[in-house]
Amino acid sequence: MQIHRKQVPTSKLVERVLQRRDELQRGLVGGSASPSTRADIEAALTSLGALLTGDLAQLPSTIKGALARWLESNRYLGVRADAAASVAPPPRSEDGPVAAGTPPPVA
Question: What pTM was estimated for this model as a whole?
Answer without folding.
Answer: 0.65
